[in-house]
């Protein structure tokens, strides 16, 4: 499934063949190395070594190393993954599999300001839903998206441990408290005109619409509704997860139908969920 | 209120700059560590903790010294890991301690490390606490420069290395084996237990994982004596506790009180009660994983055993208060979405169950629910508990089950009339 992002050889993700391209001529090879990264790597090497020296085993430095490269490149690039792999003595696949677990490690470029608003219970009780709706309108983007100019990325996140000053959020991991639509507008204004003390993130490549890759947008299985890719999950004989759900909720009319028909209906009826969750 | 709040860990916060090692030392900071390293045997320190009956403040409430006693005496290296991956919905005590009193945490960690006889201590700080990480890093530099940490502590010839490790965004890394996997540079997926970390933890060696608040109490227990701590509150769950109160209260915040203070006192006398004209509907006494308690539970003493007896748990000490404006369907949805999002995906009941309940609630909230959905949610919720590697899967059910039983009418009200069967 295309997720509307430019193919980006150093995003940490194989871009795959272009739409319409002959698969037989496509190679999964991704270019590694290159002048700018070589210089950065040479510059960061002493820091990398001292991070590794903090631990009894090299692999423990994997996440701190990814954070270090992200701090300089804005995201964990394929070059960084290759570099980390050689530093900690693991394969690039292992490194990528590890960093993909963590929501603060970005495998694709993000905006200069990562705006996050807490959507969890204590913030919700204090008006986070209205604030998030306002933030989406104000920025003109959805959850997990970046503005076309590459300035703002927006994410609705889980509890940030500042519930006494709800609703709260973070911009580039700096806390912002007691948010209202008015203070949110003021915050965005200050970031835009440079009067905010919050420093922008490094940005070495232009971000796409989202920084998430397909498999980690939060949908671990299709669950009851809204599967966007029927091949993606489900169980044996129930690729969409729909059949089991409908049986469970007790709609006997579904029991009479064939799997094929059910799947066809499910595929037709499904609408992608609004925000990727 | 003045009589209820008893600042111990929170003493001086907002008044003095406790991030400065000199300010911290003026109040006797690092004196207990000096005394332990120079004058005491490790066993003396753990004996004091045993006598104080200190129980873990991270969620499970396990007696701290007993946890230490499980370490095998086989000569292998040991590790002390301080868990500062605070992410339980409603909890914000470690966040405050980290940013306001980093030296207290360092001293507590080193005392714990000394007590168990380890020579490398770690603190795992949640990735979102960037500011807290920087503050802790500065504090550690000061302590290193003063010769309190690292090699030849206080000139004693003893060494305890100290590493600050920053996470990268995953609630599950607060689970101790998930945390250890993350600290080893792996995906933060919890491990099968047993073996428990005390036997096979970090790098396969005996490891103790303790919460920030737990360890921070140790210098105070050392200074004032085990009896001082043990005689506060109920005998089996003594001492003080920082309670994070949020939600529909006038003055949300962290309140450090004696264990056994009632929930009513905490909400009305500490946190200023509900907003004017509002009435009480419920309180979650121990973070997002705990079952909701109601009016009849207001006089329950806030300590590990009493809250458990009332049908919930004290957990991390986070109270979320609900007034009559609360939509419990949305509240349950916010928490279910959280657990579904944060499930690491190893265990089917947690990965699928949480997600399915989330989608069912989503459908209910969007007006497409069925009458039978309520029963599905009820039955599905009960099929998640006890079937997972870690407690995350078990945490999905309690709040949902408690509010759907109590406020079933709110859930039913979301079912469109046309969809009501029979």
Structure in words:
The complex is a heterodimer of chains A (277) and B (422). Chain A is built from ten helices and five strands. Chain A has helices spanning 35-53, 62-73, 78-88, 92-99, 121-125, 128-139, 181-193, 242-248, 252-255, 259-269, and strands at residues 113-118, 145-146, 152-157, 169-171, 174-176. A five-stranded mixed beta sheet of chain A has the order 2-3-1-4-5, with helices on one face. In chain A, helix 1 (35-53) packs antiparallel against helix 2 (62-73). The relative contact order of chain A is 0.11. Chain B folds into three domains: 21-230, NADH-ubiquinone oxidoreductase 51kDa subunit (Rossmann fold, 3-Layer(aba) Sandwich); 240-323, Roll (Ubiquitin-like (UB roll)); 328-419, Up-down Bundle (de novo design (two linked rop proteins)), CATH 1.20.1440.230. Chain B has a four-stranded parallel beta sheet with strand order 3-2-1-4, sandwiched between helices. In chain B, strands 6-5-8-7 form a four-stranded mixed beta sheet, covered by helices on one side. In chain B, a hairpin with a 5-residue loop joins strand 5 and strand 6 (253-258). In chain B, helix 13 packs antiparallel against helix 14 and helix 14 runs antiparallel to helix 15 (371-382). The longest helix of chain B is centred in the last third of the chain and has 18 residues, at 348-365. Chain B is globular and about 80 Å long. Chain B starts with 20 loop residues before the first helix and ends in a 10-residue tail after the last helix. In chain B, 59% of the residues are buried. The mean pLDDT of chain B is 94. Chains A and B meet through helix 2, helix 4 and helix 5 of A and strand 3, strand 5, strand 8, helix 13 and helix 14 of B.
């Amino acid at each position: 499934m295309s997720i509307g992002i430019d193919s980006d050889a150093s995003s940490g993700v194989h871009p795959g063949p272009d739409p319409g391209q002959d698969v037989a001529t496509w190679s999964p090879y991704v270019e590694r190395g290159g002048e700018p990264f070589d210089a950065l790597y040479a510059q960061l090497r002493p820091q990398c070594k001292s991070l590794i020296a903090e631990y009894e085993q090299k692999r423990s430095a994997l996440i701190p190393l990814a954070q270090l490269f992200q701090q300089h490149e804005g995201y964990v690039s394929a070059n960084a993954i290759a570099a980390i792999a050689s530093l900690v003595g693991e394969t690039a696949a292992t490194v990528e599999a590890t960093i993909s677990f963590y929501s603060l490690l970005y495998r694709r470029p993000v905006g200069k300001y990562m705006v996050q608003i807490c959507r969890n219970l204590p913030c919700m009780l204090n008006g986070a839903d209205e604030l998030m709706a306002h933030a989406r309108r104000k920025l003109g983007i959805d959850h997990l998206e970046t503005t076309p100019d590459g300035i703002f990325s927006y994410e609705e996140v889980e509890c940030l441990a500042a519930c006494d000053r709800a609703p709260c959020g973070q911009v580039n991991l700096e806390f912002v408290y007691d948010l209202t639509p008015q203070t949110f507008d003021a915050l965005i204004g200050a970031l835009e005109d440079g009067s905010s003390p919050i420093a922008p993130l490094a940005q070495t490549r232009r971000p796409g619409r989202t920084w998430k890759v397909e498999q980690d947008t939060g949908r671990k299985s299709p669950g009851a509704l809204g599967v966007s890719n029927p091949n993606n999950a489900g169980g044996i004989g129930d690729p969409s997860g729909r059949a089991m759900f409908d049986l469970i909720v007790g709609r006997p009319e579904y029991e009479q139908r064939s799997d094929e028909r059910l799947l066809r209906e499910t595929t037709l009826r499904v609408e992608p969920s609004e925000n990727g969750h | 209120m003045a009589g209820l709040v008893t600042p111990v860990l929170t003493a001086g916060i907002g008044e003095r700059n406790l991030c400065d090692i000199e300010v911290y030392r003026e109040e006797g900071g690092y004196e207990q560590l000096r005394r332990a390293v120079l004058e005491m045997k490790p066993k003396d320190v753990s004996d004091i903790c045993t006598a104080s009956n200190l129980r873990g403040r991270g969620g499970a409430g396990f007696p701290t010294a007993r946890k230490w006693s499980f370490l095998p005496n086989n000569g292998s290296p040991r590790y002390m890991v301080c868990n500062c991956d605070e992410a339980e919905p409603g909890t914000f005590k470690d966040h405050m301690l980290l940013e306001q009193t980093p030296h207290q945490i360092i001293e507590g960690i080193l005392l714990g490390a000394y007590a168990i006889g380890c020579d490398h201590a770690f603190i795992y700080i949640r990735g979102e606490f960037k500011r807290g990480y920087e503050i802790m890093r500065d504090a550690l530099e000061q302590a290193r420069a003063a010769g309190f940490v690292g090699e030849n502590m206080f000139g004693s010839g003893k060494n305890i290395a100290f590493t600050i490790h920053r996470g990268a965004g995953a609630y599950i890394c607060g689970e101790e084996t998930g945390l250890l996997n993350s600290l080893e540079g792996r995906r933060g997926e919890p491990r099968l237990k047993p073996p428990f970390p005390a036997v096979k933890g970090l790098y396969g060696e005996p490891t103790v994982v303790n919460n920030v608040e737990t360890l921070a109490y140790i210098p105070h227990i050392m200074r004032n004596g085990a009896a001082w701590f043990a005689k506060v509150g109920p005998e089996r769950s003594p001492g003080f506790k920082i309670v994070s109160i949020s939600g529909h209260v006038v003055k949300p915040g962290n309140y450090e009180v004696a264990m056994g203070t009632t929930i009513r006192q905490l909400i009305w006398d500490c946190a200023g009660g509900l907003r004017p004209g509002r009435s009480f509907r419920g309180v979650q006494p121990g973070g997002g994983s705990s079952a909701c308690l109601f009016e009849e539970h207001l006089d329950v003493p806030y300590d590990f055993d009493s809250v458990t007896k009332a049908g919930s748990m004290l957990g991390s000490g986070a109270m979320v208060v609900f007034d009559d404006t609360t939509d419990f369907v949305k509240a349950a949805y916010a928490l279910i979405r959280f657990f579904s999002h944060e499930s690491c995906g190893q265990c089917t009941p947690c990965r699928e169950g949480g997600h399915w309940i989330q989608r069912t609630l989503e459908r209910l909230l969007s007006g497409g629910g069925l009458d039978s959905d309520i029963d599905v949610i009820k039955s599905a919720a009960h099929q998640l508990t006890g079937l997972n590697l870690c407690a995350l899967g078990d945490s999905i059910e309690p709040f949902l089950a408690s509010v759907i039983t109590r406020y079933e009418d709110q859930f039913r009200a979301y079912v469109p009339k046309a969809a009501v069967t029979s």
